[in-house]
Batch of 2 targets.
Target 1
Amino acid sequence: VTNWTGDNKILLQMTLQSWMFCRLERWGTRSRRLDMEHQVQIVMDTDERENRSTLWNSACDRFELYVKLEAMSILEMALWKKQIKSGWDANRTKRI
């Protein structure tokens, strides 16, 4: 991000497409993918080295938040399925 050339920019865009955007798309989180595409585009359009680095760190932090939210959602779904399979109701009483 700090050593910016035309070739580096193209390589970064291709890498982010397969690593970040496709990952968000597979999760079915279109709004998050669009948000990240917007954040990365802001980084790409910035010419100032220091500002670009700050924006990049912000975009990575946001992506990390999305990863954590998705992991929590998957965990909640797994726990919910486990509860249903075990025969317990939501109020912790055993179903007959």
Target 2
Amino acid sequence: LEFSVRRMLDEMVYVPLDFESRFLGKEVIGVLGYRFGKSAASLALSALTSSFGTIGLRELSYFTNGAASVWLVAAWKLSALVPTRAEAEEAYEKMKKSS
């Protein structure tokens, strides 16, 4: 489930971008984003375990809800930074003309 949903969402993020930006964006996110995200989640769970001892299902669900809330707010704010397809094409054309 993780891979199928993540793959679909990845492609949706890159749709408004031109080929060059999409190619570079996928590489950067693939190398840094996924690995950093998994490492951060692992470190956070390790820190919780060492701080509070054994983590039960209730505590884990609280942590998951908090992390999901933080992710939702961050995604909402970052979505304002994603250019529309027209803006991306315009920026690409300006870049091509200046080169």
